[in-house]
Write a structure and sequence with these properties.
The structure holds two protein chains of two kinds. Chain A is an all-alpha fold. Chain A contains eleven helices and no strands. Chain A is globular. Chain B is an all-alpha fold. Chain B has a two-stranded antiparallel ribbon with strand order 1-2. Classes of the chains: A mainly alpha, B mainly alpha.
Amino acid sequence: MSAALFEFLTRMGDNTLVLGHRVSEWCGIAPVLEEDIALANTALDLIGQTTLWLSLAGEVEGKGRDADALAFHRDVWDFRNLLITEQPNGDFGQTMMRQFLFDCWHVLYLDALRNSSDARIAAIAEKSLKEVTYHFERSAETVIGLGDGTEESHRRMQAALNRLWPFVGEMFDSDAVDQEMIAQGIAPDPQALRPAFDAKLTDVMAKATLAIPGDDFSHAGGRNGARHTEHLGHMLTQMQWLQRAYPDATW
Amino acid sequence: MYAQMIKSTGKTVKTLDEMDPQERAFQERIDAGGKIEPKDWMPDGYRKTLIRQIGQHAHSEIVGQLPEGNWITRAPTLERKAILLAKVQDEAGHGLYLYCAAETLGVSRDQLTRDLLSGKMKYSSIFNYPTLTWADMGAVGWLVDGAAIMNQVPLQRTSYGPYARAMVRICKEESFHQRQGFDIMMKMANGTDAQRKMAQDALNRFWGPALMMFGPSDENSVHSAQSMAWKIKMNSNDELRQKFVDQTAPQAAYLGLTIPDETLAWNEERGHYDFAQPDWSEFFDVLKGNGPCNTERLEARNKAWDDGAWVREGLMAHAAKRRSNQFAAE
């Protein structure tokens, strides 16, 4: 098996798993009924995508682990999601800002993956992109509406952007795994996507009347598993609890 | 269905002879199986009763997200998590089109929401019970959705057009939910000792509350008689409860689980199961606000509404700005 390919696939699957879980925490408590439906729908799409990515990861690994084994029986240091996806929901504004920043990257990355030399990956990207395009439209529209809404909604959205900004840079980090994926024509160079991301971001933030922070410091440690935030461990205690407490059971 | 103790007129049901021509024409149309549409004339009592009934059903869908949402973040597999998310999404959708159906009767969704949050309007008693183990997700689908379907299937023929049409869509999805619930119960009942124990415990806790979902006997209720004459209630509570027990008892046997009722037995003569009434004093306690989770459920809904105020205001302000910009540009 290719260790780099497995690593790449867990990065994709862990992003959607962790963010899907976070979004699912909103169940039944959204600001308005239409948002309850939209958030559940987003979470559902992301969990569906997780199954595709992690099943393929398990297949590539060849050790008999399926998507559930990977989702429910790995510990924090084995997770390869971007740090932004594990950040707590905060208020609805922070949740939607996190969603927008992620969607903005996700759309570009999936679009590039449609040309992957690995047909299985191209197929997952093709299917996911349809869903994620809609996520992007919706999160962008919400960020614009709330940024350019009342004084309070503007203030909260600016705070959300400032809070999450240090997690944006990690999306465009590139390491040995990426180099191998690029060399094999499997995945794009993350750095190459930054200009397109910035263009989308600038457009939406202008409409939202929000200021993009000038400081471009960024945290790292999620996509390579070197140093997650404290939040992920707590999420896993909840997410993995049944599987861990009753290891003999099938559900 | 999630409507309990819906009050209609409080008077005796009028005969056709006692009605004025307008009301008589209305009643005859219903008797002939016709549908009443939003712009048609209708008696005040019909309108008010329907608003209460549809509103209570809508509220139940909304509050009903909470006991299931309680397990979404702990669902044991990706597939179970996805199914539960889809189910909760369906429920929010049911709430949405039921509120739309209620709006055709001249009440706004905001008003209904305020009445829910203030405790003036009720939601089904069943959602005031806690979901304590994963087996409860099975029991809720199997028993709670199962009981709901008993009432909702006949309501597809109810006299009010928008309500009947909403119910057609809802029934399709509810029967899917019930099958999913039963599927969870099968896995649990055929699983490890701990899983079987969870399944039995869930059945023990949800059996009585599920029977209560149909409401107390309404054989002598004027409200029910009026609602049945208007075809916004199609069967008596006891009829539906019996039907539910008749359907569920063999399913429990198939699962190898024991319904917590020592008197439960097939009655050859009646062609039905005999069963014990649930604890109706508990039911009235729950209606009064003293169920295990009444406080939490209403707190959660109020908190969601209050926390979301800035979002709703922000989006409205933005929409207003956009409208005025468009106006200025024209």
